[in-house]
Design brief:
The protein has 3 domains: 237 residues, Aminohydrolase, N-terminal nucleophile (Ntn) domain (Glutamine Phosphoribosylpyrophosphate, subunit 1, domain 1, 4-Layer Sandwich); 193 residues, Glucose-6-phosphate isomerase like protein, domain 1 (Rossmann fold), CATH 3.40.50.10490; 156 residues, 3-Layer(aba) Sandwich (Rossmann fold), CATH 3.40.50.10490. It contains 18 helices and 26 strands. The chain is globular, with a radius of gyration of 25 Å. The chain has an 8-stranded antiparallel sheet, with helices on one face. It has a 6-stranded antiparallel sheet with strand order 5-6-7-8-12-13. A hairpin with a 2-residue loop joins strand 12 and strand 13. By secondary structure, it is an alpha/beta fold. Bound molecules: 5-amino-5-deoxy-1-O-phosphono-D-mannitol.
């Protein structure tokens, strides 16, 4: 939702500012309606601006800021609109403490009332601003900074990752509770961030903080303590992400780069898991997971579409499975017991709705498993089991390569847990990266986008395994082009949406030769006869014949994987429509990469 960075080390002055700005630029995907930073010296210097990071960069004084330790923040507003005043960092009355925060402080109103009654003056509408004032009060009462910070954190309810600096201290103080925070151990200092890419160009040595832990970083080292204040010995892990993964590598947008990274992403996802000779899939880290009696997949947005696809695979393997929107899962009161495996599909591993569903199900006795991209994320740490999709960092708000990797991971998971045996399936899995590459090498998506960029609305339909991909095609289109789009199972057309069909509403139909092709052609005829342009996304152009105005080719593969490849064509169509419209593709309005509020 928001992005936090921090640095303390041997770098000083403008170097600290550069580290913070670099880090924020890598975290902009987490929020981008305002940004700010603070550096600590004998006083605290704060600069913050409404708008994208470039507004902050312009506002940083030419002679830079003097400081030894600093914190920065990129915001996705929850409490109060995006304004300079609501941007982080927030300070106390004297301006000697500065704080950045990601998450929600649920009890901020009573805390604020209490502090205002004591004479503290607030400048913003945020929940965060109570934190520097609480620290100030504790300092005024005689606490040292560390104790004041700890005492403050003890008063907070909700989810937070908090970082603070204080005048005259070359230290960044941090704490987390249900919001991500990771430390980087560099040669010349220590880093703090909501996500690893923020400091990946400086170090790949990381420490994932746990809920309830406190960290203080300074040039002489890091100290991590638990709730009682006892020092915790934490493992330093090495991440295998390439710094280049977090850059644009010459592409105009991260989204386009990430679309093109998909063959590599799924190669990594597959590595060591399919067994070609036996026709099985073996996932070493899940060896101790018994065959579940039933599976509930919980997820949001794009990940929910992957969950819909995965649930079908489980069912076909004989394991009853259902996919639920995480935000509705608890409401719908799905019964669970110890034979139920609840799979949280979440690329970030931090989505609040998904985390709530997982915690709720785990608390009621279900076994939980996270399918996630982010090592050390909340989902990875809190679930009983974790399956990493290994897609590498995804910066664009619109999920692309992680969706593809989630589908591949769920295909493997369902095979492994059901002990399925099919050489054809496993060989097709292994061939997927090359097939996907051929879609990228030979796509006419840009031409289609050019032709239909002025459409009134876009419809996406499919059946069976292709239905989730139809939903995903529409989500991608609305997310980045801001155009009206709907995606649903094709059979539903005649039950309502057909009323919207005109010659200005192109219909993208995912047609799979071996799955419902005839029925899909029936649906295509329904819309074509009412004037809609039809774009068939298909492995069977010969069967589609003159019923479609255009064809986007999908190479031959196992029929269950055809939609995975078809989706890549739809990603490209959405990208090129948004590109023609000049949209902010990587940072679409109102959206954030990681949604840590329910
Ligand atoms: O990190 P998650 O996979 O849990 O995120 C879930 C959704 O917020 C996410 O998929 C969202 O729909 C994307 N912006 C889609 O492109």
């Amino acid at each position: 939702m928001c992005g936090i960075v921090g640095y303390a080390g041997e770098r000083t002055n403008e170097d600290v500012v550069d580290v913070l700005l670099d880090g924020l630029s890598r975290l902009e995907y987490r929020g981008y309606d305002s940004a700010g930073l603070a550096v600590a010296n004998s006083s605290i210097s704060v600069v913050k601006r409404r708008g994208e990071l470039s507004a902050l960069e312009e506002a940083v004084p030419a002679d830079d800021l003097e400081g030894f330790a600093g914190i920065g923040h990129t915001r996705w507003s929850t409490h109060g609109p995006p304004t300079d005043a609501n941007a982080h960092p927030h300070t106390d009355c004297d301006g000697t403490v500065a704080v950045v925060h990601n998450g929600i402080i649920e009890n901020y109103q009573p805390l604020r009332d209490e502090l205002e009654a004591e004479g503290h003056e607030f400048d913003s509408e945020t929940d965060t601003e109570v934190v520097p004032h609480l620290i100030e009060r504790a300092l005024d009462r005689g606490d040292d900074v560390e104790t004041a910070f700890r005492r403050t954190i003890d008063r907070l309810e909700g989810s937070y990752a908090v970082a603070a600096v204080c005048a005259d201290r070359e230290t960044v103080y941090a704490a987390r509770q249900q919001s991500p925070l990771v430390l980087g151990v560099g040669d010349d200092g220590y880093f703090l961030a909501s996500d690893v890419p923020a400091f990946l160009e400086y170090t790949d040595e990381v420490v994932y903080l746990e809920d309830g832990q406190f960290a203080s970083i300074r040039s002489s080292g890091v100290e991590i303590t638990d709730e009682s204040g006892a020092i915790v010995d934490v493992p330093v892990e090495t991440v295998d992400w390439d710094p280049e993964d977090a850059g644009k590598s010459g592409y105009d947008h991260y989204m386009l780069k990430e679309i093109h990274e998909q063959p590599r992403a799924i190669r990594k996802c597959l590595r060591g898991r399919p067994r070609a000779l036996e026709g099985t899939v073996s996932i070493d880290e899940l060896d101790d997971v018994p065959r579940p009696e039933r599976v509930h997949l919980v997820a949001c947005g794009t990940s929910y579409h992957a969950a819909l696809y995965g649930a079908r695979l489980f069912r076909e393997r004989g394991i009853p499975a259902t996919a639920a929107l995480a935000s509705e899962y608890a409401v719908d009161a799905y019964p669970v017991d110890d034979g139920t495996l609840v799979v949280g599909v979440t690329q970030s591993g931090e989505t609040a709705d998904t985390m709530r569903a997982l915690r709720d199900a785990g608390g009621r006795g279900a076994r939980t498993l996270a399918v996630t991209n982010v090592v050390g994320s909340s989902a990875a740490r809190e679930c009983d089991h974790v399956l990493y999709i290994r897609a590498g960092p995804e910066i664009s708000v619109a999920a692309t390569k992680t969706f593809t990797s989630q589908q591949v991971a769920l295909a493997m998971l369902s095979s492994a847990l059901a002990d399925a045996r099919s050489r054809e399936f496993v060989e097709a899995l292994r061939a997927l990266p090359d097939r996907l590459q051929s879609v990228l090498d030979d796509s006419r998506a840009r031409e289609i986008a050019d032709e239909y960029v002025d459409a009134d609305a876009y419809f996406f339909v499919g059946r069976g395994y292709a239905a989730p991909v139809a939903r995903e095609g529409a989500l991608k289109m609305k997310e980045i082009s801001y155009r009206y789009a709907e995606g649903f199972p094709a059979g539903e057309f005649k039950h309502g949406p057909l009323a919207l069909i005109t010659d200005r509403t192109p219909v993208f139909a995912v047609i799979n030769r071996e799955a419902n092709a005839e029925k899909m052609l029936g649906n295509v005829k329904e819309v074509a006869s009412r004037g809609a342009p039809v774009i068939a996304v298909t492995d069977a152009p010969e069967a589609v014949g003159h019923h479609a105005d255009h064809v986007l080719r999908v190479p031959d593969t196992h029929w269950r994987f055809t939609p995975i490849l078809a989706n890549v064509q739809l990603q490209l169509v959405a990208y090129w429509v948004a590109n023609r419209l000049g949209r902010s593709i990587d940072k679409p309005r109102n959206l954030a990469k990681s949604v840590t509020v329910e």
